[in-house]
Amino acid sequence: MNKTFDFIKRKTVMLGLAVAVIGGLASCEEHTDEYDGSLRVGNILLADNSVVSPLGFDSNCHKAVGVIFYTNRDTALVVSTHELGDYAYADSLGTVGSVDNDSHTMCGAENTAALLVSEISTPAAEAVAGYLTPQTSWALPSAGELRALSAMLPVVERSMEIVGGEPFADGQYVSSTQDGSTSESEQMYYLSVAVRSGFVTSTIKTTPGRVRPVLRIR
Prior knowledge:
- By secondary structure, the protein is an alpha+beta fold.
- The protein contains 6 helices and 10 strands.
- The chain has helices at 2-29, 108-116, 123-129, 143-151, 153-163, 183-188, and strands at 44-46, 51-52, 64-72, 75-80, 85-88, 173-178, 189-194, 199-204, 208-211, 214-217.
- The protein is elongated and about 50 Å long.
């Protein structure tokens, strides 16, 4: 009698575990109806390079690395889920060659590449270059990219909250854009952007600001 009871008990436990496992798998599969892999503002870039909508995101199945904040045809820009801290644009004053000076241009990747090969040490760009995720080619955003992020911040923040990303700070963010209004300002200043307001200002290159990487995807 006891042997029969033990056998039934073991079978019940095993069945319960199987149901739990199947239930967990099903919970991930249930999101396939809400899956949206398009390059749309507010959608989420995952560690496996796939894209999912906020409704389709499941923290048990997915690892988010960023949120799309800008799209143009088959290209999108993603902002990282993580803040990197406070870094200066440069350790010393001087013009960095091949860096764009236009506050509207979406050229963070190109600017970052120029900063990293500059003879002037560029801590903000170096911090971004050292940011490790399954994706590579993270960039220090240009002023135009930070302004685009600011314009879509309410949408991005909703997705960022869903995936457990870090909130955006109230202060100025370092862009990769120099202030090119004069040759002197180009040597001394970069453009920083407050993503909560979109306010752009010239900032001394040795003054630290918040750093948040962006990534261009296709």
